[in-house]
Amino acid sequence: MLLWRIRHVHNELTHNKPAPPAESSRRFLCSYMDTLMYIKQHPTADVVKGKETVSYISVSNQDKHMGDGRKKIRKKWQPLEEGRMKLNVDGAYANDGTAGAGMILRDYTGAVIFAASRQIRVGIDALDSELAAMEEGLALALHWTPNAFTLESDYAEAIKLLDVRSPNASIYASRISVIRELIRERDIQVVQISRDANKASHELARLGRVQGRTAVWLRNYPPEITEAICADCT
Known about the structure:
Elements: H1 2-14, H2 22-41, E1 85-93, E2 99-106, E3 112-120, H3 126-144, E4 149-153, H4 156-163, H5 173-184, E5 188-192, H6 199-210, E6 215-218, H7 226-232
Parallel strand pairs: 1-4, 4-5
Antiparallel strand pairs: 1-2, 2-3, 3-6
Helix pairs in contact: 3-5
């Protein structure tokens, strides 16, 4: 579909017509993808009415089917297949308004690509802190690796907000929109995990909230999360 759109733009230029705006092409391709995903996820639904929502969030093969119909929540950090990265994020928030975000990207061997903590100066609540961690973590991961990766979070409500394709009018709308756009840029899966499988990013978020630390460590991590890193890899 992308090649077809490129050829369409080329033909317009060949015939001395103005090229369609880039935003127009983006919206066209996104709309087409939405339609294909809708048909795939709701094969018996009325496409014209389009009442069902479309989800771009994937779950790993081992989590797709459970005997009782529930998704299995991982209780320990697990590496992915060779070539695929894993991004863990977490937000921290306290009633006094202090907040922080933690992000860590690792490869299939568990080696750290980057670790980051950030102080959130104006925290709204715990959900906003988690979404902030997702947004910054995705932006960093897209910058520091060309590989496909999986985004893991232990905050079910944050993941649910990303899963709904209808417009979001909440106070989180702007951040959710940015996160959805970042997810479109790469082969990115979003998976819910347990708190026990998210210890490293939790400690990074705590550094941002408690110590007010904002930093990025490339191919390294702060000593405060060494125990969590070692626990993950054993």
